[in-house]
Amino acid sequence: MISSDWDDCFLLHHRPHGETSLIVDVFTKKNGKMSVIAKGAKKPKSKFFGYLAPFTKLKITYSGRSELKTLTNIDRDFSESTNSLSKTSYSLLYINELLIKLLPKDAVHEDLFFLYENFLSKIHSGENIELTLRSFELDMLEMLGYGLDFENDIDKNESIDIDKNYSFIPERGFRESDNSSFSGKDIINIRTRNLSEVSKKHLKHITQEAIHFCLDGRDLSSREIFRRIK
Prior knowledge:
- This protein has helices spanning 87-102, 110-124, 129-143, 184-191, 200-215, 221-229; strands at 7-17, 21-28, 32-38, 58-63, 68-76, 166-169, 173-176.
- The protein is an alpha+beta fold.
- It has 2 domains: 7-76, CATH 2.40.50.140; 87-229, Recombination protein O, C-terminal domain (de novo design (two linked rop proteins)).
- Helix 3 packs parallel to helix 5 (200-215).
- The termini are far apart.
- The relative contact order is 0.11.
- The model has no long low-confidence stretch (mean pLDDT 89).
């Protein structure tokens, strides 16, 4: 049986396994997304009880040769409290679900790990949730190879013109269109991450369409939950 050194991670999702254990999906710094079994984690006397919290950095060790590893140790900073379910928390659940669906298992994504860590830090410090969310979505898509072309018109292969309007084609990019209110200036502002200067409606439309295309028709449970509580 192979044992790991300590690894930083974030909990993405967990589900029951038997009467007392949990299967936990985590995003680790060293090994990317992986699943571990936390044996007896639901027992109050378990060394894992109370530690498996989302949206806060954990330190873990694990062992095993199979795809499903066994959690052996865990630690966390309890000063990093998590909020009760709110609009912010549902947005975080949405991001976790995206990572579950888009990240391949056991593929190292250290840059994305740091991006996610920075994203959580901004949320916990009270920065604008919507702009922080949109920025993370755009950067995540780029890191996973789904980045959008904010440089050129897809038909003419000409640089985006600040004085023209464009429509967004999810699987391709931007096309000049007189019937759209989305301007070249908006596209350039997104490219430079000057997101506060872009209509929130346009920004959300672009990221949602791009993500929907990447998900290849798979639904997101968190979106449906959030729609119900709005």
